[in-house]
Amino acid sequence: MIVAALVFASCNRTAQSAKQEKQQVEANKTSEKAVQTITSQDFKMKIMDYEKETQWKFKGDKPAIVDFYATWCGPCKIMSPILEQLAGKYKGRIDVYQIDIDKEREVAMQFGIQSIPAFLMIPKSGRPQMIVGAHDQAEFEQIIKENLLK
């Protein structure tokens, strides 16, 4: 009888734990991320139509960052939460996008991406600048201030 009570209590905790996990997953799905994942079509609509333009012509209305990443890339995984935090901090002042180079090879080829993570820093006016490699949050924030918010 005691064994049955322990088994029931254990199963009940497992069911509660599974329910809590499911609620957390649903909460994560519904919470809006500050970094927007885009496709090559989105890139051409929101940033630059590299098929039609021969010179850089930014379509955005505020500075932007495009994170070229891959799901298997360790440094990209390190940068992801940093970029998410900074995107939240500068929301409304800077648009932050990410593009998976394995799914969107066309854009990666267009910009000559050979190492990742790579960040296309796009000021409101002027030419963009490519920053390559992982950076800590303070360093990346300094790059944003110097290149996008001057």
UniProtKB/TrEMBL annotation:
Q: Report the sequence similarity comment from the record.
A: Belongs to the thioredoxin family.
- The residues forming a coiled coil are 8-35
Q: Which SUPFAM superfamilies match?
A: Thioredoxin-like (SSF52833)
- One GO term of the cellular component aspect? cytosol
Specify the Thioredoxin domain's residue ranges: 16-149
Instruction: Please indicate if the UniProt record lists Glycosyltransferase as a keyword.
Output: no
Q: Which GO terms describe its molecular function?
A: protein-disulfide reductase activity
Q: What gene name does this entry carry?
A: trxA_1
InterPro entries under this entry?
Answer: Thioredoxin, Thioredoxin-like_sf, Thioredoxin_CS, Thioredoxin_domain
Q: Which UniProt keywords apply?
A: Coiled coil, Disulfide bond, Electron transport, Redox-active center, Transport
* Superkingdom in the source lineage: Bacteria
Keyword match Nuclease: no
User: Under what name is this protein listed?
Assistant: Thioredoxin
GO terms under biological process: cell redox homeostasis
The organism is Prevotella sp. GTC17259
Gene3D superfamilies per the UniProt record, alphabetical: Glutaredoxin
